[in-house]
Amino acid sequence: MEVVTGGDAAPVLIPQGNGLASVLTAEENCLLPLVARGLPAKQARARVRRALADVGLEESAGHLIEELSGGQQQRVAVARALATEPVVLLADEPTSELDHTNRERVLALLRGVAERGGTVVMATHDPEAALAADDALHLDAGQVVSAADH
């Protein structure tokens, strides 16, 4: 068992309700955790631009969160997490507000985290999203009722 204690290995969360600050732009929301970690501004902005482009929102970087649709807000939350280059990523319903195309895009990005050696733990009610995982635990009333290798 590996213990994660903080710093660069601290778990990163994509919350179900997106957790974005409505008074900030998409870019500012994504910059916040990077600035808090002390990342140099130039490097932080480059990561954020790349992450927003990865989720298809490069042209929305300057928009306030309240100006974006629910699906766009969810993709900003994903971009914010990806910009941190997480080792452990906890994603709570990361595809619930997304259309098919953007769901596939986000799942591919989460897969990329795992392929780079990270760990992604995703909670979902979306059967297609669950099938994208290497392994799945199915819960009922908080109890594991089945496990599957994909």
From TrEMBL:
The molecular function GO annotations come to: ATP binding; ATP hydrolysis activity; transmembrane transporter activity
The coiled-coil segments of this chain are none
- The ABC transporter domain sits at 13-96
**One Pfam family matching this protein:** ABC_tran
| Recorded GO CC terms | plasma membrane
The domain of life for this entry's organism is Bacteria
- Alphabetical UniProt keywords: ATP-binding, Nucleotide-binding
**Stored PANTHER family:** IMPORT ATP-BINDING PROTEIN (PTHR24220), TRANSPORTER, PUTATIVE-RELATED (PTHR24220:SF659)
**Name by which UniProt lists this protein:** ABC transporter ATP-binding protein
| Protein's organism | Intrasporangium chromatireducens Q5-1
